Amino acid sequence: MVNVHLQARVPDGVDAVAAFALIAPEIFADADTVDRLGAFPADAIASLAAAGLLTRPLPRAHGGEALAVAAEATEAADCLGALLTAIGAASLTVGRLFEGHCNAILLVDRYGGPMATLAAEASAGRISGVWNAERGAGLQARRCSDGWRLTGRKVHCSGAGSIRRPLVTAQTPDDGPLMCLVDMASAGIAVDLSVWQAAGMRGTATGTVDFDDVFVAADAVIGGPGDYYRAPLFAGGAWRVLAVQLGGLRQILALHAAQLTRSGRGADAVSRHRFSAAAGAFESARLLVAEAGRRATDATAPPDAIVAYVDLARGTFETLALLGVDAARRNAGLAAFLGPDPLDRCCRDLETYLRQPMLDASRDNAAAYLLARGGAFQP
Ligand SMILES: Cc1cc2nc3c(=O)[nH]c(=O)nc-3n(C[C@H](O)[C@H](O)[C@H](O)COP(=O)(O)OP(=O)(O)OC[C@H]3O[C@@H](n4cnc5c(N)ncnc54)[C@H](O)[C@@H]3O)c2cc1C
């Protein structure tokens, strides 16, 4: 349930992670309902808003704490990473949506654009998000006298139907993709959520959005064509997704431990062996994601080194996370498949969320980078 009085109870000076800790139990409890209904987690987003967490990622000039935008500096990245992990542990669905919100703010801050619009949305309790994925012809942008017109389709749009001002990419005829803050109230937009019959992350409302000659004013455009894919922000920014996923892996490990304790199987050497493999996988992932966050936000690091490190981290994280899920499922046995079980939900959510774009290509890029440099990253 939304606690509308929460903001008043979050004392001044309480950091974002501590503020989230106040609402983490209710978001974790709500995640089962969200999964069962396959519904957008409106209550959880309202709780984030009530705890002041939708505005904290904004630049200070827009009333925030620069949580997303100052994640250039290592200390800020540690703070954002810890928050993303905490949210992911409570609900991967909510974590995925919050990460998209942070990404939209970061892109507008970095390349220039209508931050006041995002600030107004956050103040009104609404998240933003970034819709880039497409299949086939995708979304095309063509210039008109006072802006752009968009025609085509975006796929895998999280928060579709709930987000009012998403950051959408669209292909331009001659340059790279354009970024713009679409107003979902515009004429010519149709959202289809029926396509999202997913095994996990069911509440992300990851739908298809069709645009039929939708007008976007020039002042809703972010940066210039091609900025979206610029290195290292695009590929390097995947560290934030890993930070959310790490929270899911942490929750699975905790539920796995509780299950072994409850069933008494923690006394069995084979179960303990599997648990130690899962615990080792989590610990390796924790160190890896922290290092990826630090390197990705080191303004002095060469872009190709950042991208290669985060690429290697993505591929390696997937391996570690699948190990953690497999060990939990084997140790819990059939119990975790019978009826609603938070362990099953968390495993389904993480397995689904791990399907990220071009993971093998990321491994390949990291290998090519390292093979040209003797095989290891500089410490
Ligand atoms: C819960 C969730 C929410 C999401 N929300 C959003 C969102 O809000 N906005 C958004 O833009 N996107 C979103 N996405 C989509 C995401 O950006 C990717 O499009 C999607 O996750 C791609 O997953 P995939 O497994 O199909 O990847 P792919 O990259 O298609 O990989 C699938 C397989 O094909 C292989 N492969 C890929 N390309 C090639 C190739 N050229 N040659 C040979 N093999 C290839 C890969 O190695 C892999 O084995 C979301 C995804 C999830 C899971």
Question: What are the defining features of this structure?
Answer:
379 residues, binds flavin-adenine dinucleotide, four-stranded mixed sheet, alpha+beta, globular, Butyryl-CoA Dehydrogenase, subunit A, domain 3, 3 domains, Butyryl-Coa Dehydrogenase, subunit A, domain 1, four-stranded antiparallel sheet
Describe how the helices and strands are arranged:
Elements: H1 6-9, H2 16-37, H3 42-50, H4 74-90, H5 92-111, H6 115-123, E1 130-131, E2 139-144, E3 147-157, E4 167-170, E5 178-181, E6 189-192, E7 207-217, E8 221-222, H7 233-236, H8 238-263, H9 269-296, H10 303-332, H11 342-353, H12 359-371
Parallel strand pairs: 1-4
Antiparallel strand pairs: 2-3, 3-7, 4-5, 5-8, 6-7
The structure holds flavin-adenine dinucleotide.
What does this structure look like?
The chain contains 12 helices and 8 strands. It has 379 residues and is an alpha+beta fold. Helix 5 (92-111) runs antiparallel to helix 8 (238-263). 51% of the residues lie in helices and 12% in strands. It folds into 3 domains: 6-123, Orthogonal Bundle (Butyryl-Coa Dehydrogenase, subunit A, domain 1); 130-228, Butyryl-CoA Dehydrogenase, subunit A, domain 2, CATH 2.40.110; 231-371, Butyryl-CoA Dehydrogenase, subunit A, domain 3, CATH 1.20.140. The chain has a 4-stranded mixed beta sheet. Bound molecules: flavin-adenine dinucleotide.
> Uncertain spans, ≥5 residues at pLDDT below 50?
none
Kindly provide the name of the CATH class of the largest domain: Mainly Alpha
Q: How many strand units?
A: 8
Helicity, in percent?
40-55%
Element-level helix/strand string: HHHHHHEEEEEEEEHHHHHH
